[in-house]
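Supplementary notes (optional reading)

For those who missed the lab, this is the record we used. Protein: FBX6 protein. Length: 168 residues.
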Amino acid sequence: EGFQHWTLDQNGGDEWKVEELPGDHGTAMPEPKARKYFVTSYGPCYKSQCICLKEEGYWDRLMDEKRPEIVVKDWYVYAARYDCGCRYELTVRLLSKNKRVLEEFHPEPVVIEQWSDAKWREMSHTFQNYPAGVRYISFQHGGQDTQFWAGWYGIRVTNSSITIGPQT
């Protein structure tokens, strides 16, 4: 589906691109369902989605009273090429009906040095005991290569997910 469900917040360098797994210089993805990935360029590339929980079947009372766990996962590869470093960032925000930030997950950017192992890694976070009033989830990820090479040698991302379920 390409970028059909994404907003391109920044599309620098040679812009975002969709490629088939494993791709040029790529490695196999541990998740067999993933067939394609997004890859960044030498300029900053960030894309996002804003998910309306009501549209996805989660009613206000459930989110306010039960506050089910919200599990966020994103797969990224340690460098699109082992000989090119890159940077990866993820920001997930729980938003109110007015899109005010109620809680945020924004770990330190992952900087992958040149000559890395080029293996896929999973970034994950579980929101628990968050404030009442969550109505939207904003998900943004991206990055760029750190060698500033023309083309698509930045971070690769795929198989992003948000799962809402009972507390464990």
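If you only remember one thing from this example: The first strand starts at residue 7 and ends at 11.
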